[in-house]
Design brief:
12 helices; FAD/NAD(P)-binding domain; 422 residues; alpha/beta
Length: 422
């Protein structure tokens, strides 16, 4: 049996492992730095206390338990030795016959060191929990302080990045301003203070990858929700609780949420010429890294330019990762049986973003259709509920959503920081 080592248990890695496990010719080891899989599209709901953490997470060992062909190893990739077919992890060494890198992306701070140190990213599960605690702690501090300047800083949030993540977290923060603060924080609501949300992006529109109709609807909705949208300006610095924009404006805040960009990871042992734009590994039409004999890359960490419809690589979203994982599994099985592998071709299923309660935009590819408002919001809920990794997560998330919609409230606003004080 060929040993396939998969680094990363996200959309790409999980789909590769599950599809490959259907064949008897492989033993599979999935490696991840965490012992759980999580669902990135709903991180923002965890960060704003509208979903409990266990709704979007599931342990790998429980997930792979029914399959004797898939093993799990916790650890972080340290070094790859292509000539020896060996990798070094933070938890030991592994040999492989086939190595697949499905490590996804990491937050890109564009070289702004103070932003990296002081901003709140929104990429990992830990990021979401940190942001939730930070926002709730700031509300408690705002209810106590007698300093007007400090209270304004505590109640002001700047979100950098007007892509889906930035839109979704801005919209959820606006919901908190309207429905939570007025009810649960009378010390704040009854004072001469107003929680402010700024959404900042260097491009001239929100949701730059979507169509004009979706962009216009989203921008109009955000403004109506009380969000101050600043387009065509960038965050240049974040120091001394001040966000400095490229047009010279200074916003005093204790919260800068960074959703402005991502990049792939670089690995020791991988030649620099194997990397393309954004540190994405250059792969051929079969997702094999160009220059490597038995190393593949799938999902956000790779760039495949042979697809004529996507000469600059596929979008770094869930669907390309899922489809590449499934296609690579089929190809590895074909190769093991002396078959001919099939080139990857992305089937675009469209894109979507939620803005707030009953507000979303959906662009479907086949049939080509654009929607916004309540129906788009309902489709967004259905698609994301269906995409969760198992029935348990689906039921918990559905119960949370139903409870929130029927009671117009959520009781998950817990500050949990072991060993730390307010």
């Amino acid at each position: 049996m060929k040993r396939v080592v998969i680094i990363g248990g996200g959309f790409a890695g999980i789909n590769l492992a599950k599809n490959l496990a259907a064949n008897d010719g492989f033993s599979i080891i999935v490696v991840d730095r965490n012992n759980y899989n999580f669902f990135p599209p709903l991180l923002y709901q965890v960060s704003t206390a509208f979903l409990e953490a266990s709704s979007i997470c599931y342990p790998y060992r429980k997930l792979f338990g029914p399959s004797p062909k898939i093993a799990f190893r916790i650890g972080e990739l340290v070094k790859i030795s292509p000539g020896e077919n060996k990798i070094l992890l933070s938890t030991g060494e592994l040999d492989y016959d086939i190595l697949v890198l499905a490590t996804g992306t990491q937050t890109n701070y564009f070289g702004i060191e103070n932003v990296k140190i002081n901003a709140m990213p929104m990429k990992t599960f830990e990021d979401a929990l940190n942001l939730r605690n930070h926002l709730l702690q700031n509300l408690e501090k705002a209810a106590i302080t007698g300093d007007p300047g400090e209270r304004n800083r505590l109640l002001t949030v700047v979100v950098a990045g007007a892509g889906p993540t930035g839109i979704e977290i801005s919209g959820m923060l606006a919901e908190i301003n309207r429905k939570v603060i007025t009810r649960e924080y009378p010390e704040v609501a009854n004072g001469q203070f107003e929680a402010k949300i700024y959404l900042v992006d260097g491009v001239s529109t929100v949701l730059a990858t979507m169509g004009e109709a979706s962009q216009k609807y989203t921008l109009k909705s955000l403004i109506r929700m009380g969000i101050e949208v600043k387009l065509g300006v960038q965050v240049k610095e974040y120091l001394d609780k001040k966000v400095i924009l490229s047009d010279g404006e200074v916003i005093e805040t204790e919260t800068l949420v960074w959703a402005a960009g991502v990049s792939a990871s670089a690995f020791i042992g991988i030649p620099i010429e194997w990397y393309g734009k954004g540190k994405r590994l250059i792969v051929d039409e079969f997702n094999k890294i160009k220059g490597a004999a038995n190393i593949y890359a799938i999902g956000d960490t790779c760039i495949l330019t042979s697809d004529k419809l996507y000469p600059n690589g596929h979008p770094q979203m869930a669907q390309p990762a899922i489809q590449q994982g499934a296609n690579l599994a089929k190809n590895l099985i074909l190769l093991a049986n002396n078959g001919v592998p099939k080139p990857f071709k992305y089937a675009d299923k469209g894109s979507m973003a939620i803005i707030g309660k009953y507000k979303a935009v959906v662009e479907m590819a086949k049939p080509r259709m654009n929607m916004n408002g309540f129906f788009a919001w309902f489709i967004w809920l259905f698609v994301h509920l269906r995409s969760l990794i198992n029935v348990r997560n689906k039921l918990k998330t559905f119960a949370n959503w139903v409870g929130t919609l029927t009671t117009r409230d959520q009781s998950l606003r817990f500050i949990i920081r072991p060993g730390r004080k307010l």
